[in-house]
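Figure 3 (text version): structure tokens given as input.
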């Protein structure tokens, strides 16, 4: 397939090719271009993502941002918004998806047909072709067609500190103290506290 090599890496990691992944890919390209025109490979970038959709997998692959390293921060705000900054927070860019995913209506109709079990082989082929075309369109069109990019101020996340663990009084499992359920009477984990 005639897609950029680094996008193909994202597809391998993500498990399938989809427009959502393409949005994440393009958001990274748009943001990094603005953040640092000549990115050095060893400079660590922190990403704050405001959704947990397919797009985030592209952020992980392209920027090496992971929960484990603490440079991937999830804000559950349901927005296609990504903020990228260098570790010391000198420069930050906020990238928000303001465009429209191409072919939305067509995909919606095909999806309905497929879900209802009435789709023909041609419909399935059309669905795959459309997904591919839309994906390619998102990653090849100018970023400014889809994203608004602006520099913002951020406070860099605190460096990881030593975590104190305590035993939950109900299940006995060790739990990071600052993640205990907000109860005064007992020190219990959020699972035992019945949080969803
Ligand atoms: Zn996906
Ligand atoms: Zn517990």
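Below: residues designed for each position.
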């Amino acid at each position: 397939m005639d897609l950029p090599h680094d996008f193909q890496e994202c597809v391998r990691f993500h498990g399938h090719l989809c427009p959502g992944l393409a949005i994440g890919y393009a958001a990274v390209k748009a943001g990094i271009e603005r953040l640092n025109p000549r990115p050095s490979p060893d400079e660590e970038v922190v990403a704050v993502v405001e959704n947990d959709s397919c797009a985030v997998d592209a952020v992980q692959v392209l920027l090496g941002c992971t929960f484990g390293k603490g440079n991937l921060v999830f804000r559950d705000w349901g927005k296609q918004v990504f903020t990228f900054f260098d570790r010391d927070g000198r420069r930050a860019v906020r990238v928000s998806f303001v465009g429209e995913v191409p072919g939305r209506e067509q995909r919606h109709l095909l999806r309905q047909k497929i879900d209802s079990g009435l789709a023909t082989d041609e419909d399935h082929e059309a669905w795959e072709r459309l997904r591919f075309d839309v994906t390619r369109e998102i990653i090849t069109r100018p970023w400014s067609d889809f994203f608004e990019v602006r520099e913002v101020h951020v406070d860099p996340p605190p460096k990881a500190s030593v975590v104190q663990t305590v035993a939950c009084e109900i299940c006995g499992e060790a739990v990071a103290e600052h993640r205990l359920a907000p109860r005064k009477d007992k020190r219990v984990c959020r699972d035992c506290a019945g949080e969803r």
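Helices lie at 5-14, 19-35, 55-63, 104-115, 121-140.
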